[in-house]
């Protein structure tokens, strides 16, 4: 039987409701655009609601480098309660620690406040083109197949789905076709934080600390641990080549891993999120391979919880508190934009007149086993992301933001975290609305970057004044 295809029209269509997509949709909607935010999943927020902290929102010096939509969402979280905020790890970075359960509410409140239309459980299966424009996306859900026309499309799918369908040039992994490991975040409640931090001071040989000139390089590991204890938050990075993890691996009680990353999510519940599970070299665009990874990651999570409870002081009376709502994916496809952000841009902390947002996270490439590349940004500073990295090469009205950004693999290893991804999304959302007011509506290359930067500053974005 023939299926009737519905048709809808929006100013801006954002594909993917992760952190970049949320920022893009809010930015477009608050500037007057009729905005649709699409996602194949059941919740909006992406990594904001997994249990991860917001990385890359402050540089190693402790300066905020991302504001705007991110700040609005964090302020809403603080209004609702349970917000912890910036915490230093005495390794390389500052985390912005959040409660994923409260963040679910905060994200929805901000989307609703600005009138973003949200369509969940909806998958983009194809696109419609008009010359070098993406005229619309074909959306499939239980309701029907719907042709959603958009004057500007923003691809925040994580995998570059729209850009690939549009024939854009794609980058995948490296020459060896390696992929950073998948992970499954889990949470543990009832942690005795003072006992955990005392353990850090007593056995600092287990900690990855002092890796940055701006974060304890002049201190011994024990002195860094003492400062962690003074801070009073359970932000503890246990390193893969340290005795505690090596013992667990040797005994078969822990998978080979580069870290046990412990991050506070709730002071009231004495709850932490833990990042330690890993399955490397899985192509997460292969749905079958991704699905088969889930039970393996859950098994790793459960074994890790048992090992942490038995072997890490502070966890003996703790309890399992929850799993992330989805598998954590670090890399799949990257879209080639008019500019490709480079390793040198990141490492050298390059500033530029066409910057639309900042990043500061170290070059961070997880590998199989206990291997991980971590290269700090020079002088504990930040780099500027240019407008042209948002513009998909060869397509007139298509932006890309978030994990599928236009960056080489090393630069991607820094800019893929939430802070810079949200800055990218916010710039794309405002850029979309500025393009619709140009002489050729929807031509995103006609946008004045100077005007875009002024608009971003008016929205509270941070574009200058930091290292």
Characterise this structure.
This protein has 12 helices and 20 strands. With 467 residues, it is of the alpha+beta class. The longest helix has 25 residues, at 287-311. It starts with a strand and ends in a 9-residue tail after the last helix.
In brief:
30% of the residues lie in helices and 22% in strands. With 467 residues, the chain is of the alpha+beta class. The longest helix has 25 residues.
Look at the structure and give the CATH class of the largest domain: Alpha Beta
- Termini separation comes to 62 Å
CATH topology group of the largest domain:
FAD/NAD(P)-binding domain
Largest sheet: 7 strands, mixed
Give the strand content: 15-25%
- Number of E-state strands: 20
Number of domains: 2
Uncertain residue segments:
none
Helicity range:
25-40%
**CATH homologous superfamily classification of the largest domain:** FAD/NAD(P)-binding domain
Category from helices, strands and their pairing: alpha+beta
| Count of individual helical segments | 12
Compute the CA-based radius of gyration: 22 Å
What integer is the average pLDDT?
97
So, CATH architecture of the largest domain?
Answer: 3-Layer(bba) Sandwich
Shape: globular
What descriptive keywords fit this protein?
alpha+beta; 467 residues; 2 domains; seven-stranded mixed sheet; five-stranded antiparallel sheet; single chain; FAD/NAD(P)-binding domain
């Amino acid at each position: 039987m023939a299926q009737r295809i519905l048709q809808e029209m929006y100013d801006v269509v954002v594909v993917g409701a992760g952190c970049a997509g949320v920022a893009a949709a809010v930015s477009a909607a608050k500037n007057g655009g009729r905005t649709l935010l699409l996602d194949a999943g059941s919740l909006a927020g992406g990594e904001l609601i997994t249990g991860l902290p917001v990385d890359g929102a402050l540089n190693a010096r402790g300066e905020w480098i991302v504001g705007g939509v991110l700040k609005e969402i964090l302020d809403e979280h603080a209004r609702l309660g349970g917000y912890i905020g910036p915490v230093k790890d005495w390794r390389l970075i500052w985390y912005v620690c959040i409660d994923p359960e409260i963040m679910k509410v905060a994200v929805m409140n901000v989307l609703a406040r600005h009138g973003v239309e949200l369509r969940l459980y909806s998958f983009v299966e194809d696109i419609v083109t008009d010359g070098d424009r993406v005229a619309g996306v074909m959306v499939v859900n239980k309701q029907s197949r719907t042709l959603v026309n958009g004057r500007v499309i923003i691809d925040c799918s994580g995998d570059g789905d729209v850009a690939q369908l549009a024939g854009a040039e794609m980058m995948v992994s490296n020459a060896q076709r390696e992929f950073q490991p998948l992970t499954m975040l889990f949470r543990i409640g009832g942690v005795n934080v003072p006992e955990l931090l005392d353990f850090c001071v007593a056995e600092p040989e287990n900690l990855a600390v002092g890796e940055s000139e701006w974060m304890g390089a002049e201190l011994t590991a024990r002195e860094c641990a003492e400062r962690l204890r003074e801070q009073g938050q359970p932000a503890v990075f246990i390193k893969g080549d340290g005795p505690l993890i090596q013992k667990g691996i040797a005994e078969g009680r822990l998978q080979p891993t580069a870290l046990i990353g412990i991050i506070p999510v709730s002071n009231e519940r004495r709850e932490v999120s833990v990042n330690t599970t890993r399955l490397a070299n899985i192509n997460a665009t292969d749905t079958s391979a991704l699905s088969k990874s889930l039970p393996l990651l859950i098994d790793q999570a459960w074994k890790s919880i048992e090992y942490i409870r038995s072997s890490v002081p502070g966890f003996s009376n703790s309890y399992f508190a929850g799993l992330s709502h989805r598998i954590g994916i670090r890399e799949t496809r990257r879209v080639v934009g008019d500019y490709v952000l480079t390793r040198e841009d990141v490492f050298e902390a390059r500033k530029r007149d066409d910057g639309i947002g900042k990043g500061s996270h170290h070059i961070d490439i997880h590998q199989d086993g206990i291997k991980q590349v971590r290269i700090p940004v020079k002088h504990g500073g930040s780099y500027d992301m240019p407008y042209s990295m948002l513009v998909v090469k060869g397509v007139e009205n298509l932006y890309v933001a978030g994990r599928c950004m236009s960056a080489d693999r090393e630069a991607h290893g820094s800019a893929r975290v939430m802070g810079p991804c949200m800055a990218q999304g916010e710039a794309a959302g405002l850029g979309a609305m500025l393009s619709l007011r140009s002489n050729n509506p929807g031509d995103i290359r006609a946008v004045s970057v100077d005007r875009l930067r002024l608009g971003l500053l008016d929205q509270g974005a941070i574009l200058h004044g930091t290292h």
